[in-house]
Amino acid sequence: MFWASWLLAALAIVLAWPAPIILSRAAWPARAPFTAMVLWQSIALAGGLSMIGAMLVWGLAPLGDDLLAASGAFLDLLSDDASAPDLGVIHVFAISAGVLLFAHLVFTLALTFVRVRRQRARHRNMLRLLSSPSTDQPDTVVIRHPAPVAYCLPGGARSVTVMSDGLMELLTRPELDAVLTHENAHLHQRHHLLLWAFAAWRSALPWLPTSRLAQGAVSELIEMLADDEALRHVDRATLMRAIVIVGSGTPTSMRQESTPQSSQQEEPPGTADAQGDVDVPLAGQDGRGAGSPSAARIRRLLSPLPPLGRVQQASVLATAGLLLVVPPVLLLAPEFLG
């Protein structure tokens, strides 16, 4: 157990600092956004498990040869109110820190979920008053606002895509189809669950580079995945025009320029500050609103890169899988270290 705790601590440090920084600066995620998203999730899960596990394993090491046996012995001590001469103050501190960190992460995840659910309910009630159903698009409502706005509001069977009448006036029919397909992809691929999890992770550990970089990277990656889905239905030029118009709110000049430029647009009532470079979320982490598109997303559409090779993707997925396997092995079966 002693060596397992040190290995877990080393893994936690690597996944908390150099790994997310290196991955956030890499260029290949734009070529394989789904694979990169899997890796980000593995880094977050393995990092959190390693961080908590290192403290628990080190603190419980005097009581057993593995985490399960040591935990059972520790619970017996607590129930019998017996003394444990092998446990020092530093061991008790490590155990307490591990338990508190685990409780903090779980509590923050639950609190974020409750807040998001309440925000969605308030947002949905506002839409009932301020919107009307679309005449030609199912599960779509239209709000009266001159700015080009499009976002999705998750809610299971009650999920809807929201558009402004200003957007409908600015876009052609193919461009509007591109926007709707993009937003529907967010709903069908359950991107809001990822945003919720990484928002909770950042809220719980705002000082950790993993949480900040992961949230920004995942927000960008889900936009790329939604773009890829839209490209299955419309051509690249149409999608590009739609993104620029929605992002800038000035259709005339953008149609005449070959290079898109982002500018400030009037935000609709209820719009929150942007949490990244991709979209402006409405109602917290729920809606995916119209905002200035990121530079990486624009470059990806302007200059398409070849998909990441199968060998490279397999290597990344194998690394992600290994990250999810190593911490549990070190926690439950440290005898494999010899």
From TrEMBL:
Positions with biased composition (Low complexity): 256-269
Q: Which GO terms describe its biological process?
A: proteolysis
The record's listing under Pfam families reads: Peptidase_M48
Give the record's cofactor note, including how many are bound: Binds 1 zinc ion per subunit.
- Coiled-coil portions: none
Claim: Protein transport is one of the keywords in the record: no
Family to which this protein belongs: Belongs to the peptidase M48 family.
Q: Which cofactor does the UniProt annotation name?
A: Zn(2+)
Per UniProt, the keywords (alphabetical) are: Hydrolase, Membrane, Metal-binding, Metalloprotease, Protease, Transmembrane, Transmembrane helix, Zinc
- Put simply, this protein is called M56 family metallopeptidase
Q: Does the keyword Protease apply?
A: yes
Which residue numbers delimit the Peptidase M48 domain? 119-197
